[in-house]
């Protein structure tokens, strides 16, 4: 009598990878959610912004090199590294992110916080589109629905954060050309850069740690060039790089550096779209931490977004895209 075939179980390596992805996503959500509170508490107003960003980039490089040495990949990378490979995998995304940040700064100055936050959430959709165009990674109908649920949740969270910060008005052309268009272009660039990072790590097998090192170096060089004529550059030359710093300032800087490494790991193992889910979930973590440590209760918008975030994550994980088998 034939025995019934045992149902296929996922290989142990798959289970380990899923556990890793879950751990990286959880840590990133906690870090991203706690970062605003940590920065507000430990970074004094006198601290020069460029100095903290530059120090964070250096800390990211050091931490990534330590992790590479620990997992034994540093020697291999040292032997196989090429400038062309680095520019292909990390140079282009780094340049795109630099342009994206500049556009966001222009947009933020010409839009109220609410409009800016709402338009900025469109990067989740553009990430999904770019991932499909570059990696041919399709989404199921349920996953597309989950993405729209996530965007609705993000918009609700933006209402809660920015409802008290509306602008008093302004020139319509200036708002359109220096506010709305820059933030939408920045969202497209964010999706493109995230997809390129995913392509480099998953297709070209470029280490996420190595990409962190390369992108941090490129970003730091761009920032150093900008200090030649920027107000921050003048302040650094006048007061010194660590003006206004205390020992506690290192806490948010190091936290941000570790967060940058986690972003690379999540993008590499889970993809840019799932990273979007983590970032929106982190907004709920921020609201919770504000209630615990500052006594600020979450808004009704935040409470309404909670079931949407949970539902969207559950649907996206439960209904992945499956290739239809052709009937023979």
Please, what is the average pLDDT?
84
Task: Bin the helical content.
Answer: over 70%
Please indicate the percent range of residues in DSSP E strands (runs of 2 or more): under 5%
Overall spatial form: globular
Q: N-to-C SSE series?
A: HHHHHHHHHHHHH
> C-alpha Rg, in Å?
21 Å
What is the total domain count? Answer: 1
- Count of DSSP-assigned helices: 13
The main sheet comes to: none
- Kindly state the number of beta strands: 0
Stretches where pLDDT is under 50 for at least 5 consecutive residues are: 1-5, 164-168
Q: Separation of termini?
A: 29 Å
SS-based class: mainly alpha
GO molecular function, one term: pyrimidine nucleotide-sugar transmembrane transporter activity
Keywords: Membrane, Sugar transport, Transmembrane, Transmembrane helix, Transport
Transmembrane segments: 21-38, 50-69, 81-98, 118-135, 144-163, 175-197, 209-228, 240-264, 276-292, 298-316
Protein name: Putative nucleotide-sugar transporter
Account of the 3D structure:
This protein is 77% helix and 0% strand. It is mainly α and 328 residues long. It has one domain (47-160, 172-318). The chain is globular.
Topology summary:
Layout: H1 12-42, H2 49-71, H3 74-80, H4 83-110, H5 113-120, H6 123-135, H7 141-162, H8 172-202, H9 208-226, H10 231-239, H11 250-270, H12 272-294, H13 300-318
Protein name: Putative nucleotide-sugar transporter
Membrane topology: Multi-pass membrane protein
Main location: membrane
């Amino acid at each position: 009598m034939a025995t019934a075939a045992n149902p296929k179980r996922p290989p142990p390596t798959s289970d380990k990878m899923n556990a890793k992805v879950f751990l990286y996503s959880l840590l990133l959500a906690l870090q991203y959610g706690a970062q605003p509170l940590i920065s507000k508490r430990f970074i004094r107003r006198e601290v020069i912004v460029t100095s903290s960003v530059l120090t964070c980039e250096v800390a990211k490089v050091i931490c990534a090199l330590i992790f590479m040495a620990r997992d034994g990949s540093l020697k291999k990378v040292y032997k196989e590294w090429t400038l062309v490979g680095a520019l292909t995998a990390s140079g282009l995304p780094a340049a795109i992110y630099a342009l994206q940040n500049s556009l966001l700064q222009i947009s933020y100055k010409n839009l109220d916080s609410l409009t800016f936050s709402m338009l900025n959430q469109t990067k989740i959709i553009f990430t999904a589109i770019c991932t499909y165009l570059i990696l041919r990674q399709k989404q199921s109908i349920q996953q597309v629905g989950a993405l729209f649920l996530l965007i609705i949740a993000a918009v609700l969270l933006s209402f809660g954060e920015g409802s008290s910060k509306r602008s008093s008005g302004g020139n319509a052309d200036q708002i359109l050309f220096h506010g709305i268009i820059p933030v939408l272009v920045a969202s497209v660039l964010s999706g493109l850069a995230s997809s390129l990072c995913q392509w480099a790590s998953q297709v070209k097998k470029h280490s996420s740690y190595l990409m962190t090192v390369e992108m941090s170096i490129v970003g730091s060089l761009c920032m150093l060039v900008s200090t030649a004529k920027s107000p921050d550059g003048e302040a650094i030359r006048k007061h010194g790089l660590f003006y206004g710093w205390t020992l506690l300032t290192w806490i948010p800087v190091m936290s941000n550096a570790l967060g940058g490494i986690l972003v690379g790991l999540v993008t590499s193992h889970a993809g840019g779209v799932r990273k979007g889910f983590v970032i929106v979930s982190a907004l709920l973590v921020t609201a919770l931490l504000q209630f615990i440590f500052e006594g600020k209760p979450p808004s009704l918008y935040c409470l309404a977004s909670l079931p949407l975030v949970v539902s969207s994550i559950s649907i996206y994980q439960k209904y992945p895209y499956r290739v239809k088998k052709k009937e023979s």
